Amino acid sequence: MMTTDRKQGLVVKIGGTEGVDFQAVCEDAAAIVRSGQQLVLVHGGSAEATALGTALGTPPRFITSPSGYTSRYTDRVTLEVFMMAVNGKINTLLTETLNGLGVKAFGLSGQDGSWMVATRKTAIQSVENGKRKLIRDDFSGKIDSVNPSILFALLEMGCVPVVAPLARGAEGEALNIDADRAAAEVAAAVKAETLILLTGVPGLLAHFPDEASLIQTLKPTELPQAVEIAQGRMKKKILGAQEALDGGVGRVIIADGRIANPISNALSGAGTWIA
Amino acid sequence: MMTTDRKQGLVVKIGGTEGVDFQAVCEDAAAIVRSGQQLVLVHGGSAEATALGTALGTPPRFITSPSGYTSRYTDRVTLEVFMMAVNGKINTLLTETLNGLGVKAFGLSGQDGSWMVATRKTAIQSVENGKRKLIRDDFSGKIDSVNPSILFALLEMGCVPVVAPLARGAEGEALNIDADRAAAEVAAAVKAETLILLTGVPGLLAHFPDEASLIQTLKPTELPQAVEIAQGRMKKKILGAQEALDGGVGRVIIADGRIANPISNALSGAGTWIA
After folding, report:
1. B169 domain-assigned
2. Cβ count near A82 (within 10 Å)
3. What is the number of domains present in chain A?
4. Would B5 be classed as within a structural domain?
5. What residues in chain A have their Cβ under 8 A from chain B's Cβ atoms?
6. How far is it, in rounded angstroms, from Cα A90 to Cα A241?
7. Would you place residue B206 in the very low, low, confident or very high pLDDT band (cuts 50, 70, 90)?
8. Residue A86 within a domain
């Protein structure tokens, strides 16, 4: 990605609820950047948003779609909690941690400079106790376009972009976006060679939660079947992998983020490789 | 500032505790930017940090220096509250509001890309009930250097930088910095023609709080005397004005931020003009 003479561009996504060791990720990322590799970090922050919302008396509510995907119900109050927890705390702490490790990190969200534009979900079907319900006041969105110019500019300045999952909607409004899908779209936009999705399991498991049932490789043609096998948030990672490959990314690795050197381990062959 | 053929560069600072009307500032800023003017917005967020800290069970504590300046006591817990309230909420909401007004806003703090570097105050003298005390666990800092490259790059991309008052310390740590002083240093770094400090009074008052005692003009040589007259946070604005003028800024205007069109009003002659 990034510079035309460099084909090993790397986008790494770390989740907020999945037991990923942020310190280990930052240490590994710093070592990789010092070796000359360009890297973009994309993060979630659901656990922080849940904790902050709960502490402030507005605990999270979740929406389950008819096809079984789960997402955070983001009314206006929740959006502002999300801004504080994800754009304020997680993004700022990751940037600070990387700075402390000798990397020049740069925190931003997709609404800054409107480089990630999303369409607000104005009517979301939700299934509650078997009944369908329509939700109309949600501030979440589906990414329409990613303009990577600012990422290229930051990489040229020697920075590691640290991306929070907020995008800009059609009316200028901030929208909560799925961090796995955001990472996939970013990887496609910068033509990354590799997208790594770090999570709290060793990769896609054929028989969740049996970690011995790790699927080591997947072909793009096997992804529709993999979506069926995947449980919970893993479904979105498979969708993200599909989007990234469709967008020209060389390979997607879903790997364990709970261990030391999680990025290097993934690059060395651990996890589920999709290519 | 910014481009060599443009001498009307403008930096505007809005406070967090002073009754400034953020919506009115954004509307005025958007109109000014649409007219072709380049603008950088710097904000505080003390009121939000106080409200959030209080809601989370860690109400703010303030330090009064022997010379009478007041600042927030920023231990590690308070620093993270500050990140959430100021970098997370205020910065993200201002960026969202400007985006909604048709401006391409870009939120960032001084630690992003390490463009604002500060020295941590490792031993702060505090006066409590007439007694001096030394505070050693504070995460606030005094700005050492401002590298305006990222601001120039954003302005070239047609963005309005929206700057949160966090800087990077020597060890990479995030530091709370004074927003008035930050605005002054930013204005000097970009060689702004005008720095406007918007606040909850019409300007420097000879007899605070008598608003009829507004001082309309000040020469740089009168600033030491003005510091003596100034009450509370106005002292830091006068210090900021001095720093900005010393750094080559054409003029500093301390003006009323509670009214409609606060920026245009200041530029038309309202407030205290210092030049």
Report:
1. yes
2. 30
3. 1
4. no
5. 52, 55-56, 80, 83-89, 91-93, 95-102, 104-109, 111-114, 149-150, 153-154, 157, 159, 166, 168, 171-174
6. 24
7. very high
8. yes
Mark yes or no for CB contact A157/B149 under 8 Å. yes
**Structural domain that includes position B189:** 10-56+82-118+145-274
Residues A13 and A195: beta-carbon distance below 8 Å: yes
- Give the C-alpha separation, B13 to A1, whole Å: 38
Task: Kindly report, residue by residue over B229-269, the tens digit of the pLDDT.
Answer: 998 889 999 999 999 999 999 999 999 999 999 999 999 99
Domain contains A121: yes
Residues of B at the A interface, defined by Cβ within 8 angstroms: 52, 55-56, 80, 83-89, 91-93, 95-102, 104-109, 111-114, 149-150, 153-154, 157, 159, 166, 168, 171-174
Q: Provide the pLDDT confidence category of residue A6 given band limits of 50, 70 and 90.
A: very low
- Contact at 8 Å (CB) between A53 and A89? no
Query: What is the per-residue pLDDT across B98-119, written as a single tens digit (0 to 9) for each?
Result: 999 999 999 999 999 999 999 9
Rounded CA gap, B198 and B209, in Å?
16
Among candidates B135, B195, B132, B139, which has minimal Cα distance to B163? B195
CATH code at position B232: 3.40.1160.10
Do A112 and B111 make contact, defined as CB atoms within 8 angstroms? no
Question: Is A5's pLDDT higher than 90?
Answer: no
Inter-chain touch A113–B104, beta carbons under 8 Å: yes
- The nearest alpha carbon in chain B to A159 belongs to B113
